């Protein structure tokens, strides 16, 4: 089929696994973008034509996406998207419930909310003495009744203590801080890692041990520049995509 | 030991695995930040005191970090950081070699560089007709002679074709585009996912199958707004941390 040949990179023989990865990457992004409105992927033959590749490469690509838990394949029905991904913007500092309010209700299962003495590394990030207590929050965050992330939050005592009397189950910490302190939040520094979930985290997030998760550290400051909120967040990789814009010159 | 008790969140019994995760998260971030200049972690007893926790929780935390390939523990020597992570900023649109030039030399193993007919989804992102060929590049990017990422790049033909005559092994695509086209790059849209590496990607990146990797889609535009460069990038999670700033009001 000359049609197929002309669509491969010219003059290059490529192993099937490389072609399969190329197909899987495009489909993964389409799934993340919600491109398949019906929730059904096109038929295998359509994908073979669309990617101008072989049926085996398409099957391998679908196997990769199935192993990631994004799709299920049902005989006689077709290939269905099962894991809708939510988008979280890196454009603006905002809480999870604020960001996802159009996509569902965020509920926080508050596992710990209490004062504690911070580890020295945490105290240093918050710019406080290690013997000064902080308020520690540990919340399992659910969207549509399913776990989305596990957040460990260390708050400067004057900012965190008033939150212990608030409704942490239904409100973002960001909104509560601004409300109880009367101060606006300013900026946050973010560090994002991709890690494999350890056994216990996997159990809490209801994913397989070893599943890919985002490990995010976020240090949030008041508008005056004072750091008050250090969070270590583990986010299910199969449920969230992070979106951002980059500019060449700034 | 009252010292230890007072440092746990008050009035809360917590399973050892939760305390271990808390310790692991702080240490992981310190490793990513290069906090252990000597490459050695403090002695177990020091960590027990620092985190005011039990020796078993510290050991579990170190097991988690070891399973992630970040540290090795040697009897009689101690705990050593083995996987230094590189930082890549989300502050500005820049190529890998540009960003990491202070940390080492980026070399690109060019696996494919040729014209091809794009999949319809790729053509749509680039705003071109699906029967218009693009230039496809597939590069394994090495930093310090070890794989860092696998980049699949689709370039509009007029932008990509001149690059085929350039030294893709030693130069970022961004720099080459600006040089050969005479146009400045403008902004890019970024979507970041955390996924488990499939078998073949793992082999190419020299990691275990299933290891957590970033899957990044980046659509880059010329300063005039025209989209010209769509990249699907798989980055080793154990070698890179993404850094960004967020602002509450913009």
TrEMBL record, chains A, B:
Pfam families: GntR, UTRA. The keyword DNA-binding applies. Residues 1-20 are annotated as: Disordered. Keywords: DNA-binding, Transcription, Transcription regulation. InterPro entries: Bact_HTH_transcr_reg, Chorismate_lyase_/UTRA_dom_sf, Tscrpt_reg_HTH_GntR, UTRA, WH-like_DNA-bd_sf, WH_DNA-bd_sf. Residues 17-84 form the HTH gntR-type domain. The keyword Transport does not apply. PANTHER family: GNTR-FAMILY TRANSCRIPTIONAL REGULATOR, MANNOSYL-D-GLYCERATE TRANSPORT/METABOLISM SYSTEM REPRESSOR MNGR-RELATED. This is GntR family transcriptional regulator. It comes from Saccharopolyspora taberi.
